[in-house]
């Protein structure tokens, strides 16, 4: 030890100013990070999205503050507490500091609990914007699923729907209340839409990044699901729960339209003849068979659903 | 005995290799009951599997460097990512940490060996057995399991070819055997720490590595039976037509998820706790200061153990989980930040006003700590239900857990290997190669895993063999990082192999570290202190305090030097 600085005695104003300046700088950078965090996310296209993004921004801000604070301490020690070469002395034999230890137990506890309380509030708000319910019961629910693929159910009053979302290995099919079927999902903007999420084989995930929403489809259950699209446009709908062989091809688009456009689309669609939607999994599977079926085991793709409106894989999407 | 080098008779008796001593390398290939031999066996085989898992990862990153699935068939990709995860967890991390347990626990507590040496050897030899079973699954018709390391039914029970012996079958068998091996190990480690400590070594004089080993192995004993139960039911569904998880027969696929995560969430803590132990051992040595708040750090380990057992549903927020359950498990998950925070701040407190030496082990510790703070923050984000609903099952998660499993745990493993290398081989490693290894690993892992967070935020699902072009940039960066990590293993292997063969001789305590293991010769004799076990008279991290660790310390120091 250099004998010149007995540190515990004097806690000079210079040190306080330095710490205050560092905290201020840390706060400023963290605020900037929180604001910037919105740019790391896709466009906001559902009523849930702003809530999710704000929560994420809040956590980015707090997280940045803590991360930078810790990093600053590490950097300080690396710059000013390095042992010179061949110096075999020991450092200050500080074994601990009870007050400090209590402080850094309580402060994180308070921070995470405040985040948790806030997140529960947001989570409950989201649950009222788009409630969901799992209809349980193996065989019964399967029968519901079988029935649902045949005919649509009656729509509720103010909401639109229910639209049946049917996932297979590896395709998406959407059945509207009037019985119209499509390979891409069309939704009216600014209106709550209800869904029945049905899987015909394995677990799938209904995931629209622009909506910030994701819900697994569970074979043997029907999940009542709802959401409110708030921005017109074409967005990706991806299978988010691994579903075997050609999982990554299992994506389609959600098209959010004004009420009028949506009504016209639905009316046109109802008159269109049923046809096979393009299916990337099937194309890959057939290519594989043509090349002598090399590769590892997979179940073959389910036959592509017959729909009134197919999914156009070349149409550009926004998020 | 052709060599004229005089060896201490105890060292010659040692069933572990002493460089230059005749013939004792053969003991590594035998059913040896010496914990130090078993420890090195674990580590060597685990590092071999690190290369296998890394190779699989590099093929995956080769596939993902471009958006379409063009390098390998998507089904092959599924097998690769499944096996990458399985190999890295069950054949690299668990075994290598058991290697540390075997090498470190007996010398650290002054015990001659493990409590049950034969059980110990049995637990080890199961490891190559299930390793071979898992590797064999590459060669059965249909290829290895391709349902991910979660093996969620119904995908995992689809059995497309209908053979009885298939990749998934062998996978379940290997995982179940790994569970058996881990339970045997856990019984051994816990008993050893509880019953075989040196005189005077009360619980609050126990090195933190032993505390964390105790905390981690407790999780193994509680959690593994649940996983094994789930695996057995899955095997029955797959092979014997039962329907525990199959909706057609009245089963529920969600049930499996509860079984699986009840163990597999805490499993992360089984891996990270010993690394917290390594950090807690190494920071005091290389900062030349006592561990800040030793007792609180020790107790926090069990806080983590307890909390880790009640958070598993955070992996199922977007499944069929009701709202109340989501909220409850969000709170418990966030609480883990408190005991982990205590540890992080304690390490920072240990660095503060220290006299820091940037040797290779210290660099890996500092890098690991830096990465872990980042991983902790993204962990809180993932615990937040509304955020998880968006980023769950995307590359954000992949980025997060690689920051934990590679950038923290594996960094800690490297730190531990370099730090205790001289102790158990009697040779010094080359500092230059070690630093090169660190720099390449740090740059490679940042490049590999940081952009994944961004891809996930933008909505790229995990486990995909192909993806939309908007994710291309993040994936190119990640792939370059992965290849750099491949390169980074070259200086590592070179260093370990050449140092062990002809590195400069290491003294008993090259780092001037405090600890019973450093009072032994390098490498320690077969029975460590044999009948002359020292009496511990002070805490484990007395840097700068000027107190001896044990009674008659000079005698032990002198004897270790003579050896
Ligand atoms: Cu978890």
Please sum up the structure shown:
Chain A is of the alpha+beta class and 319 residues long. Chain A has helices at 13-36, 49-80, 98-129, 138-150, 259-271, 280-290; strands at residues 133-135, 160-168, 171-175, 181-182, 185-188, 193-199, 204-208, 213-217, 222-227, 233-239, 251-257, 275-276, 306-307. Classes of the chains: A alpha+beta (319), B mainly alpha (563).
- Secondary-structure element order of chain A, N to C: HHHEHEEEEEEEEEEHEHE
Q: What's the total number of strands of chain B?
A: 0
Q: Oligomeric status of the shown chains?
A: heterodimer
Task: Kindly estimate the percentage of residues of chain A that lie in beta strands according to DSSP.
Answer: 15-25%
Count of discrete alpha- or pi-helical segments spanning 4 or more residues of chain B: 16
Q: What is the 3D form of chain B?
A: globular
What's the helix-strand series of chain B? HHHHHHHHHHHHHHHH
User: How many structural domains does the protein architecture of chain B include?
Assistant: 1
> What is the correct CATH architecture of chain B?
Up-down Bundle
Structural class of chain B: mainly alpha
CATH first level of chain B: which class? Mainly Alpha
Number of strands of chain A: 13
Q: Biggest sheet of chain B, in brief?
A: none
Tell me the CATH superfamily of the largest domain in chain A: Cupredoxins -  blue copper proteins
- Going by helix content, strand content and strand pairing, the class of chain A is alpha+beta
Biggest interface, CB < 8 A = A-B, 98 and 103 residues
């Amino acid at each position: 030890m250099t004998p010149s600085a007995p540190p515990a005695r004097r806690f000079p104003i210079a040190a306080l100013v330095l710490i205050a300046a560092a905290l201020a700088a840390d706060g400023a950078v963290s605020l900037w990070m929180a604001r910037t965090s919105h740019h790391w996310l896709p466009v906001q296209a559902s009523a849930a999205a702003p809530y999710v993004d704000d929560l994420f921004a809040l956590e980015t801000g707090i997280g940045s503050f803590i991360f930078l604070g810790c990093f600053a301490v590490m950097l300080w020690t690396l710059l000013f507490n390095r042992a010179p070469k061949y110096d075999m002395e020991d450092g200050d034999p500080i074994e601990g500091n009870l007050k400090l230890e209590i402080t850094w137990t309580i402060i994180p506890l308070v921070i995470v609990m405040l985040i948790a309380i806030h997140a529960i509030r947001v989570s409950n708000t989201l649950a009222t914007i788009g409630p969901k319910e799992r209809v349980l019961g193996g065989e019964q629910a399967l029968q519901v699923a079988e029935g649902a693929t045949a005919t649509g159910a009656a729509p509720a009053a103010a909401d639109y729907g229910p639209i049946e979302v049917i996932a297979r290995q590896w395709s998406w099919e959407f059945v509207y209340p009037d019985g119209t079927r499509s390979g891409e999902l069309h939704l009216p903007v600014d209106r709550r839409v209800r869904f029945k999420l049905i899987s015909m084989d394995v677990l799938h995930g209904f995931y629209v990044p622009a909506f910030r929403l994701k819900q697994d489809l569970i074979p043997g259950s029907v999940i009542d699901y709802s959401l409110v699209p708030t921005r017109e446009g074409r967005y990706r709908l991806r299978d988010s729960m691994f579903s075997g062989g050609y999982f990554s091809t299992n994506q389609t688009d959600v098209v959010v339209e004004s009420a009028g456009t949506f009504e016209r689309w639905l009316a046109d669609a109802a008159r269109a003849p049923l046809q096979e939607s393009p299916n990337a999994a099937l194309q890959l599977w057939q290519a594989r068979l043509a090349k002598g079926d090399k590769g590892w085991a997979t179940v073959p793709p389910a036959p592509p659903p017959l729909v009134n409106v197919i999914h156009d894989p070349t149409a550009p999407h926004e998020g | 005995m052709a060599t004229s080098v005089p060896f201490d008779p105890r060292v010659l008796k040692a069933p572990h290799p002493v460089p230059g001593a005749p013939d004792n390398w053969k003991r590594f290939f035998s059913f040896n009951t010496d914990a130090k031999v078993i420890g090195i066996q674990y580590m060597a085989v685990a590092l071999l599997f690190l290369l296998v898992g890394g190779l699989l990862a590099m093929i995956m990153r080769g596939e993902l460097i471009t958006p379409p699935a063009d390098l390998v068939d998507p089904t092959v990709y599924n097998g690769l990512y499944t096996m990458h995860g399985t190999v890295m967890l069950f054949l690299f991390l668990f075994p290598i940490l058991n290697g540390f347990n075997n090498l470190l626990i007996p010398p650290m507590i002054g015990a001659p060996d493990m409590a049950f040496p034969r059980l110990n050897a049995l637990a080890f030899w199961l490891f190559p057995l299930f390793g071979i079973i898992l590797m064999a699954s590459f060669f059965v018709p249909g290829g290895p399991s391709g349902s991910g390391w979660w093996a969620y039914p119904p995908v995992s029970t689809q059995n497309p070819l209908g053979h009885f012996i298939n990749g998934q079958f062998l996978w379940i068998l290997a995982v179940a055997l790994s569970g058996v091996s881990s339970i045997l190990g856990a019984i051994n480690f816990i008993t050893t720490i509880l019953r075989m400590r040196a005189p005077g070594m009360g619980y609050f004089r126990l090195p933190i590595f032993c505390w964390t080993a105790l905390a981690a192995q407790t999780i193994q004993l509680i959690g593994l039976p649940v996983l094994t139960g789930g695996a057995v039911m899955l095997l029955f569904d797959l092979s014997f037509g039962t329907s525990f998880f199959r909706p057609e027969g009245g089963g529920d696929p969600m049930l499996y998820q509860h079984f699986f995560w009840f163990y597999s969430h805490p499993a992360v803590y089984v891996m990270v706790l010993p690394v917290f132990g390594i950090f807690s051992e190494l920071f005091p040595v290389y900062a030349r200061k006592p561990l800040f708040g030793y007792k609180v750090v020790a107790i926090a380990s069990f806080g983590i153990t307890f909390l880790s057992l009640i958070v598993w549903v955070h992996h199922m927020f977007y499944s069929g989980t009701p709202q109340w359950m989501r909220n409850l498990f969000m709170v418990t998950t966030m609480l883990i930040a408190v005991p982990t925070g205590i540890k992080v701040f304690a390490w920072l407190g240990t660095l503060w006003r220290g006299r820091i030496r940037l040797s290779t082990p210290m660099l890996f510790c500092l890098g690991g700590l830096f990465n872990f703070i980042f991983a902790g923050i993204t962990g809180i984000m993932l615990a937040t239900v509304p955020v998880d609903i968006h980023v769950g099952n995307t590359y954000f998660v992949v980025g997060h857990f690689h920051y934990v499993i590679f950038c923290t745990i594996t960094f800690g493993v490297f730190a531990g290997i370099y730090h205790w290398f001289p102790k158990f081989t009697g040779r010094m490693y080359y500092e230059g190669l070690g630093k090169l290894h660190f720099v390449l690993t740090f740059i490679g892992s940042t490049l590999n895993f940081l952009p994944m967070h961004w891809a996930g935020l933008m909505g790229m699902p995990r486990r995909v063999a192909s993806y939309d072009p908007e994710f291309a940039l993040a994936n190119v960066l990640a792939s370059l990082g992965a290849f750099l990590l491949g390169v980074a293993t070259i200086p590592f292997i070179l260093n370990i192999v050449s140092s062990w063969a002809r590195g400069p001789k290491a003294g008993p305590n090259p780092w001037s570290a405090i600890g019973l293991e450093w009072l032994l010769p390098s490498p320690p004799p077969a029975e460590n202190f044999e009948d002359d076990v020292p009496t511990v008279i002070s805490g484990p991290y007395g840097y700068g305090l000027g107190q001896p660790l044990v009674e008659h310390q000079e005698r032990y120091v002198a004897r270790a030097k003579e050896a």
